[in-house]
Amino acid sequence: MRDIYILGAKINDVSLEEATKLIADFLLSGQKGYVVTPNPEICLISYKDKKFRRIIQNSFLSIPDGSGLKVGARILGDKLNNKTTGADLSQKVLELAEHNNYSILLLGGKKEVGERAKNLLKQNFPNLKIDYLNGGEFDNQGNSTSPNLINLINAINPTLIFVSLGAPKQEYFMASNQDKLNAKLMLGLGGTIDFLAGQVTRAPESFRSHGLEWLWRGFKEPWRWKRIVRAVIIFPLTCFIYKFQKYE
Fold this sequence. Notes:
Blueprint: E1 3-6, E2 9-12, H1 16-27, E3 33-36, H2 40-48, H3 50-57, E4 61-62, H4 68-75, H5 86-100, E5 103-107, H6 111-124, E6 129-133, H7 149-156, E7 160-163, H8 169-177, E8 185-188, H9 192-196, H10 205-209, H11 213-220, H12 225-246
Parallel strand pairs: 3-4, 3-8, 5-6, 5-7, 7-8
Antiparallel strand pairs: 1-2
Helix pairs in contact: 1-5, 2-3, 2-12, 4-12
């Protein structure tokens, strides 16, 4: 597995199939860990926040979530061969979980969205063991207002947790609590819960294959344009600055 670094964030250059196989093997290993899904925004956070950068680097798996990372890698004089989105990986993990009798907990997101996602997944994966927990409000260090959250999660006793808090909350939560939780693996999936709930439709394949899923989501969710500007304009500019700083 080849690693590259973009603005200090570790990226494992893995395909969807490779990532799925790595997760399947990890779940049989008896270890605990977490998966992160860096996109340009997460790389920007990593650039500014050393603690967050270490969390990304200490992850079991850090998938290349977004075509923008290929642009960033090219600017920095490297090459990223794969794009593996959290949305695509979640589907593979759901299939893996149903096949192997692993249980999944959906954590975070609005209650109505989370419950809808749980119910839809029960329809699509009838043999899957799945639960949802809102978890309360989380600060930027991944701390919840729910004092008994860890006990509540351990009472459910999931094999995997889909953590949908958004960055950097979900990454901080996973890193801080992996040793306290019984779950074998956590995946920081951010807004993927909206896809699982059917709240947001994936971009057509023609958009995805050309790296334009961000444009589709911008039209579907206009509130995202501020984030899109960060990913499409600020991120490549920061990569240029980072490159020149390295050679000063």
